[in-house]
């Protein structure tokens, strides 16, 4: 029996579908009515698997519908898809061709697939990512205030502006003589205050309403020194199931904790795309490292020793990779964070 594979190219209002090796193509609307028509047609021609290329979130509805209908769905990594297409000499691009490329590459069995995050958990993960967005925006505003302060050759603040009481005590805006500059800083401060209110409200909502899918893993993540409720939630929902990573190297690569070096004739000749992987997980582990440094004198000594040889940035990166490996093994072994083992390794 000939195996059939389907490829779906997703856009905001349409789904282009191709079934191979039959090369039967059609399109439906990207809405509930279109999903029903698609499922009815696919059930008439049983498929081994259906490949879908992520497209800004527009693919989520059809993935949920296909999974609910009991069909086998594969989420295709867009970057890898483009690389494989170029390798095969496929240079033309349109929606129908993209659907055919997805189906053919899925049929070949050698196309790296992206993880299909379970419905019902994705919404909480996205809300946690929204909080992360607000935190980044607040940090940008504080950085702008500090940069402006340095540009006008004013004394350093000496205290962390992330704390509201410090901002009030330092009378930040009053430092600047020029009225326009002062107004700009006042706007920054007002936005920082509003972001803090939104972040606090969001964190309260998360603490009260989020149902922790895996309570044991959540408690293990909180056993890392410095990691609190919210950061443990971020780590939990970004990792989800550590068993999807066959090796520790796969996990630290996914978390962007290692640099993909390129080597030829035993000589390093640059490195690959550092942006492949999960930026949100990388940020969360970076935050965990910062909190670990606050809690552990041994961590401070570790970074200080590496900083002399490699600089502060690389020293923190090495500690983040070390922590990432520890997180992988503690979750695989279903153990709490072991401080003694962490520093021995």
Supply the key terms.
345 residues; alpha/beta; Nucleotidyltransferase, domain 5; 3 domains
Number of strands: 8
* Total discrete domains: 3
Order of helices and strands: EEEHEHEHHEHHHHHHEEHHHH
| Nearest-integer average pLDDT | 89
- Taking strands numbered 1, 2, ... along the chain, how are they ordered across the largest sheet? 3-2-1-4-5-6
By secondary-structure content and strand pairing, the structural class works out as alpha/beta
Uncertain parts:
none
Q: Report the sheet-strand fraction.
A: 5-15%
Largest beta-sheet details: 6 strands, mixed
What form results from the Cα inertia axes? globular
Fraction of residues in H or I helices: 55-70%
Which radius of gyration do the C-alpha atoms yield?
A: 25 Å
Q: What is the end-to-end distance?
A: 52 Å
